[in-house]
Amino acid sequence: LLVTVGFAFVQSPDTHVNREPVPVAHLLANPHVAMCGVVVLLASATITMFEPVFVLFLNGRLGFGPARIGTLFAAAALANTVFHPLAGRAADRFGARKLTAAGLLAIAGVLPLVSFAHSFPSAMALGVLQSLTFALVATPSLTLMSDVTTAAGLGSFGTAYGFYNAIWAIGLLCGPSAGAFV
Questions:
Q1: What is the separation of C-alpha 171 from the centre of its chain, rounded to a whole number of angstroms?
Q2: Is the pLDDT score of 19 beyond 70?
Q3: C-alpha span between 12 and 20 (Å, rounded)
Q4: How far apart are CA 73 and CA 90, in angstroms?
Q5: Cα–Cα–Cα angle for 63, 70, 47, rounded to 5 degrees
Q6: Which string of b and e fits 66-90 if b means at least 16 CB within 10 Å?
Q7: Rounded to two decimals, what is the model's pTM?
Q8: What single-letter DSSP state applies at residue 116?
């Protein structure tokens, strides 16, 4: 209710830019857009693949209960509120493609390190570090989608962002099952 009331007071522009609708098939025909979609799918699946496995590790190997595990996830979520805006600023400064690639490499390098957690403080530090690597992919990949859509000459960001969100959601859906299976 508060958010709905808040929208009543938000000032939006009086003008709207008319854009030509872009069919999703036309969007996907562009190899750069499709490749961005693959990156987004793999990144979101990896992020969520990690979570159930990490919980099992924390409980089974370190003996952490729900309160400690929840605290670790809360710390990572809090860190994300800091890291995502910083990653967005870095994407503007260094380029979305470079930062997304660096983020993917960072995930690959840091993800195995989480298995070296041996105490609550080490699990906290490694979990927060992992959330930084996730932010280095999630935020700039959205900017990358914008960049490849613009470079392709496609005038509709709505279609591109809809595709991005759908692919991200598919990764979020498949990741935990894949992680639990593996």
A1: 10
A2: no
A3: 21
A4: 24
A5: 95
A6: eebbeebbebbeebbeebbeebbeb
A7: 0.80
A8: G
